[in-house]
Amino acid sequence: MKNPRRIILSFFAKLVLAYALFLTLWVGINGWYPRQLQTLGTDIFRSTILSTGSQWVVILKPPTKKIGTYDSMLAVANRKTRAVGEQPFSSLLMSYLPLAMTLSLIIASPVSWMRRILATLLGSLFVCLWVSLALFCMVLSAYCGEPPLGIYTIGPLLTNILGFVTWVVSVSTVPQFVVPIFFWVLATIRREDIQRLTNPTNNHATESR
Question: Residue 138 domain-assigned?
Fold first, then answer.
């Protein structure tokens, strides 16, 4: 078995290289990626709303004026009051960077390519679910706000909790760097991988036999 220190150094070197490549790729798709997210998100909300009979109206669209990294707009409406609310967000921060970090961790992992391919599919699914959660929290936060847009009344405590959760999943750096680590572990790491790193001597003795 290879030296654990060499494996770890190789992992971090590959991680930095893979993440840098994803950041470079963003330069070429920074117009295409937000449009795909907006279209897919709108379709998912529309089909969900129709299937549940909800009174929600949710649309993801380009912002009227791009400000900083905000390249998308979440628009919600109250059917009864005709009130409309809009919340800008960044597809880069909310979606692309978590996906890039998750895939970079998987690509850099010292496992077989078959396991990396399967982990890539599973990790991508985790990121999609996370982005869906972020958008859902943003919509729910809007509908739990003040009239005339608000539909639900949940009290100040739950409102503050929902606001904090919405900030964590959609604005903070948690989705970009912390959550992908959990996705990577769930999709890629097995118990024997940890044992190989923590007990290199024992593994070497087993291989010698």
Answer: yes
